[in-house]
Structures are given as structure tokens and as C-alpha cells.
Amino acid sequence: MVRGIAALAVMIGHLRNLFFVDFSEAAGNSRLPIKILYFVTGFGHEAVMVFFVLSGFLVGGSVIRGRMEDRWSWGLYLINRLTRLWVVLIPALILGSIWDHSGIHIFGVSGIYGGHAQANVGRVPVLPRLSASVMIGNALFVQTIFTPTFGSNGPLWSLSNEFWYYLLFPLMVLAFPVRKFDWTTVLYASAGLVLVFVIGWPICLYFLIWLSGAAINFAPERPARLAKAGVVAASLALLSVLAAIRFQTGDLRYWQDLLVGVAATALIFALLRIAARSKSGVYSRAAGWFAGISYTLYLVHLPALTFVSAWLVPRQRWQPDAAHLAIAAGLAAAALAYAFAVASVTEYRTGAIRTRVIGATGLHE
């Protein structure tokens, strides 16, 4: 459920930024409901830190287990990771190109497609980012390293981070001998250093947040009787960090992100100590549905919302009144339905596609 909530937070944050005026311009911004609305819809970037932690825990855990159980395979690992990424990413790039080219053709480049957005997103010209070379660069995960993110799809920046963490972490793990010294560990360590040099320090700094998630795999068990108390304490800690970020005026972006990552790590660790709910429950079904479309929702929502914003709010964004909030709720539901439709032919089929690829290569899990 955490993964689904994080993806939803990113989408809702973009929706609010694209369609509604900033808090300082909102009528009645001294009222508590308006303050709460802008507070809870303002953590899209922080939600990406939660994604990094979850990825570190899940992917990092698989690497650690493969190494410790002496069953590591680069071939299987890369197939698992690349099928997970490409099965959704490639269609998302194509769909994003369709939305952006259509938007430029219909609405021109005098507004959001020309980088003249009123919002905190859409402030760079889209057309120069729609070239084939930029699309290929994003498909190869070199956005923010050698190319910009593709079109209006700014969230693609984090996918570059993710991919290189997927390579860097195994190199780190394999650089430590399990039993005795082996020259291959030197090669892995050297390859890791070269990779650090290639991807650069900005990406490497956020690797610390990813590593905090991987560290959960080494955390000791806690008494079950303390599990719920741990969740409450970790939740309060995360909320405190998020609240502190809202009142911070200095330029401390990375340190804020690091604090969010640490707090999210504590919360995920605490949640893992609570017994799983019945799979037949409403919560479990909702959690499974959100988790099942989370990656797709993250990758496909922004170009579509950008197109709709160019249509509905070409000049002046909305005030957060009841009528416009109702429209926004409809847009959010439409974005979820769109993501579900795309996921049904992409993300949901990842396992089947992965099995076929593994079978074609002759590898064995």
C-alpha cells in the first residue's frame, strides 16, 4: 500500500500544481481546510524518496540473498530488472510523445508547452525534449546524465537513478568476498568506482537513501508486542519531518530528502513487523490494486495531465473552491483509470513477459 500511496501523492501533487493557484494566491488560505489541502498535496517529491527506500529494500534484498546463498546470476538479475522497467517505460514514452505532440499541435508553444507554465511543473520548453535521441536516452536510463527527461514527463528523472542503483549495488555486494579473497572482487570494486564517476555525484548522493532501504534487510527483529507502537512512532516521525520541511526556508533540499528517506525507512521497517492482513479483506484488495498500477501511474500521468491543463486552464489556474475541487477529483479518478488501462496491458503482464524472455535465453531461475 505504501508504494501505491507514494505514486498517488506524486500524481495528486502534479494535479494540484497544474490546475490550482499557489497557496499564497488561494482565497481563504487562512482557513484550516485550505491549509490542510495544500499541505497534504504538496509532497510529491518526498514520495519519490519513499520509492527509493522501497526499491532499496526489495531489490537490494534480492541481491543480498542471491549473494549469500551463492546463487547470484547477472543474467537473471538483469532480465528481472529490465523487464520490470521496460515493459512499462517504453509504452509510457510512446504515449507521452503522443500527448505532447498533440498538445503542441492543438495549443501551440505559447503556454505550458513553451515552458511558460504558471505551475511549479512545466517550466521548460517541451518540443526540444521530444527528439528521437532524447527518447532513446530515456529508454537507456541516461536522462539527467546525458539527456534531459523526455517531453513533459519530468518524473522520469528518478528512473535514471533507480537503474544505476540496480547496477551499483550488486557491484558493491560482489566486491566483498563471501569466503576468501578473489580477484573478481577487485574487478567489481573497480567497475563500481568507474560507474560512480560516470553517473556523477548528484545521483550517488541519493543512493544513500536507496541504501537505507536495503539496510532494512539487516535490521534485527523486534518483539511483536511493540510492532504497533513502532508504527505509530515512525508515522509521527515522518509527519514531523514533512511538517518541518514545509516551514524550512533555506536551501536544504538534499538534507530534507535524506531525512525523509530515513523516516520512511523507519516506517517501512515498523510496518513489516505487523502481521499481514487477510488477503480477502477490502484493505488488502485496495493495497494490491494500488501497488499493481503504481509504477504505471507514476510514468504515464503527467503528460496526460499537462495536456488537460493546457485545455482547461490555459491562462489562469483555479481557486480551491468546491466546484473546482469536484472537477479535480474527477480528473484524479480519470488519471487512475488511465493508469489502470495502461497497466492492464503492461505492468500486469510483466511476469509473463519475463518468463518468456528467461525461457528464450535458456537461463533457469
Task: Describe this protein's structure.
The chain contains 13 helices and no strands. Helix 1 (2-19) crosses helix 12. The chain has 365 residues and is mainly α. It has one domain. It has helices spanning 2-19, 32-40, 44-68, 74-107, 132-139, 157-174, 183-199, 201-214, 227-247, 253-271, 282-312, 322-345, 350-361. It is globular, with a radius of gyration of 21 Å. The two termini are 28 Å apart. 68% of the residues lie in helices and 0% in strands. The model has no long low-confidence stretch (mean pLDDT 90).
Brief characterization of the structure:
The protein is an all-alpha fold and 365 residues long. It is 68% helix and 0% strand. The protein has helices spanning 2-19, 32-40, 44-68, 74-107, 132-139, 157-174, 183-199, 201-214, 227-247, 253-271, 282-312, 322-345, 350-361.
Distance between the termini: 28 Å
Q: Figure out the total of helices.
A: 13
Our count of domains comes out at 1
Percent in strands: under 5%
Radius of gyration: 21 Å
Low-confidence stretches: none
